[in-house]
Amino acid sequence: MNASKEYWEKRFKGFDFETFDFSNSKPAQPLVNFCKNHTKRGDRALDLGCGGGRNSQYMAQQGLEVYGVDISLSAVEFCRKRFEKFNLEGKFESGTFDKIPFPDKYFSFVVCIAAFDHDTYENAKKSIIEIRRVIAYRGLILFTFDPPDTDEDILDEAEVLHDGTFNFIRGEQEGMLFHRYKDDEIRLLVGEESIASFERSDDGTRVVVCH
User: Fold this and answer.
1) Is residue 4 very low, low, confident or very high in pLDDT (cuts 50, 70, 90)?
2) Which of 49, 91, 94, 187 has its CA 20 to 30 A from that of 100?
3) How far is 9 from 20, CA to CA, in rounded Å?
4) Which of 192, 190, 179 has its CA nearest to residue 148?
């Protein structure tokens, strides 16, 4: 949805590269665990919904060949500058989950950290197919999904779309989409038979590794 694109563009356009505190920009712990257990140097990785690049940077520093895709052009540009600052190799492109700008079977694995929640459920079903198009045979996908009670205190600022996705229409989060996934809904979305592991972090985040 255009509203969601505008939201993320505005958010990342507010990042000031010159004053940004990179020391506090740490990778997500589920990604650290995933890389330790499932990746090797030289693997070609896609960070889908790469945002400001904290997870992309970590993967590049582990010797992975990193690519990133984000709906926000400002986020993409920030990632490019970030990699230049730390003398890292990486390629970042603007795109959406359902139209990933890379060839079939291009990646060893795909990671999507706290990003799939920010789309409609209907579009997420299309995006799963697209992710599997660009990943190598039996390649793994790492998803994290926010706790279902996220943004509980501001739900009155959102309208509910037909698929249950919240579209925030006022307040600081205006323009943001958020789908409050239940565990069963995640399993249905990715396909029960494809799940290698399904765990819940202490804060309620669901961490899913699947094919």
Assistant:
1) confident
2) 187
3) 17
4) 179
Q: Report the candidate in 185, 86, 85 with the shortest Cα–Cα distance to residue 143.
A: 185
CA distance 58 to 209: 19
Q: Within a 10 A sphere around the Cβ of 105, how many other Cβ atoms? A: 13
Q: How many CA atoms lie within 13 A of 85 on its CB side?
A: 14
Q: Cα–chain-centroid distance for residue 211?
A: 16
Name the strands in the sheet holding 166-168, side by side, starting at the edge strand that comes first in the sequence.
158-160, 166-168, 177-178
Tallying the residues shown for the chain, one arrives at 211
Q: Token match 């693997």: residue?
A: 43
Q: How many CB atoms lie within 10 A of CB 41?
A: 8
pLDDT digits (tens, 9 = 90+) for 50-95: 999 999 999 999 999 999 999 999 999 999 999 999 999 999 999 9
Closest by CA to 201, choosing from 29, 27, 25, is 29
Q: What pLDDT score does 65 carry?
A: 98
DSSP symbols for 120-182: -HHHHHHHHHHHHHHEEEEEEEEEEE--TTTTGGGGGGEEEPTTS-EEE-SSTTTT-EE----
Structure tokens at 46: 């896609």
What pLDDT, on the 0 to 100 scale, is given for residue 150?
A: 83
Q: Which long-range contacts (CB under 8 A, 24 or more apart) does 180-188 make?
A: 180/117, 180/148, 180/149, 180/150, 181/117, 181/145, 181/148, 181/206, 182/148, 185/121, 186/143, 186/145
Q: Tokens 């229409």, residue?
A: 169
